[in-house]
Amino acid sequence: MTDALVIGSGPAGLMAAEALLAGGRTVTLVEAKPSIGRKFLMAGKSGLNLTRMQPFGPFLASYGMGLHPTMRACLKAFGPEEVQAWTEGLGQTTFTGSTGRLFPHAMKASPLLRAWLERLDGLGLGRHTRWRWVDWENNIHHFDTPDGPRVLTPRVTVFALGGASWARLGSDGQWAPRFAENGIAVTPFQPSNVGLNVTWSNHMDRHFGAPLKNIALHAGDQVSRGEVVISKRGLEGGGVYPLAPALRQGAALTLDLLPDLSIQAVAERVSKPKGKSSLSNHLRRVLKLSLAAQAILREFVHPLPDNPKALAQVIKAVPVRHSGLRPMDEAISTAGGVSFDALDDTLMLRDCPGVFCAGEMLDWDAPTGGYLLTACFATGLWAGRHAAEYDRP
């Protein structure tokens, strides 16, 4: 008999382990990969964005209108201010960028992870790597390990198995069929925070790698302001990622190449005499449209209209022809997972007493910019705290 078992060592699993240890439980953490927190470390490779420091109302609204009440409760209990305090409690000082994004001064995830594991080990955490969860029945968990099959029978379990993106780092979604076979409702996975497939004409080749800056992207009723990169495969970057939910639903995508100017203002500038200048030079001179932006405009609107107002209209709403989102394994995260209908308000499975779920394996979606990581922390803490109180020995 094991006291408390946590399966998965991402941010949600580690936070659940911390809450269980703080609640006086003896905790065993198991991880399928050879090391702890691989996706967490990758997320911090270009700067670990921990959360977004903003009033709670706008912060919560960023998760979308369909956010489940239990998720709201988790985020209220562990929101941006709590993330900052927790990080600094591990000796990692933080700073807030101009957009409200919170980073550790070290920028990378590795110092934070090391400090976190030192604290957990000091609290008595037992951990095993290369233990892949296979299945469970009646709270008996089966694992494939380097030493052969192993079985653990915990009093309480927290699953933090991740979603279905970045399989090489551990989030492969292979747990979902096992859950479904056990009668647990699992919403199919879909890519989120991912690039867009575009089949380009040959004239775009020289623009691969070029950024589109100071633009706005529109899909359905969603608007995103952010940089997009033209890649060989399509459009990628922080500007397109938040639109994944609308694009999954089939919403059309348009680009506003000059979001800070009205159609009338663009038309007035375009209508200025261009003399002997080519249209390309004219647009660069009067609108400061980069070569990459002009290439996008000509790619999707051909021929360009001669009428200044008509030209202004397409510059403000370039229709992007695409073939959907990039594959799920290229996604930063996934929507879908364990349905909240299968969980009570403590994140315990209704039909499996003592078994809790947390992190990306739950059916929720969020944009990048700290929202994903905060929700993983928050749900891990919520599940861990409630698991600590359940069926005490």
Shape: elongated
- Strand percentage, roughly? 15-25%
- Which structural class do the helices and strands define? alpha+beta
Text of the CATH class of the largest domain: Alpha Beta
What is the level-2 CATH architecture name of the largest domain?
3-Layer(bba) Sandwich
How many helices does DSSP assign?
13
How confident overall, as mean pLDDT?
A: 95
Give the biggest beta sheet: 5 strands, parallel
Alpha-carbon distance between the termini? 11 Å
Strand order of the largest sheet: 6-2-1-10-21
**So, the CATH homologous superfamily of the largest domain?**
FAD/NAD(P)-binding domain
What is this structure, in a nutshell?
The chain is an alpha+beta fold and 393 residues long. The chain has two domains: 2-191 and 331-389, FAD/NAD(P)-binding domain; 196-320, no CATH class.
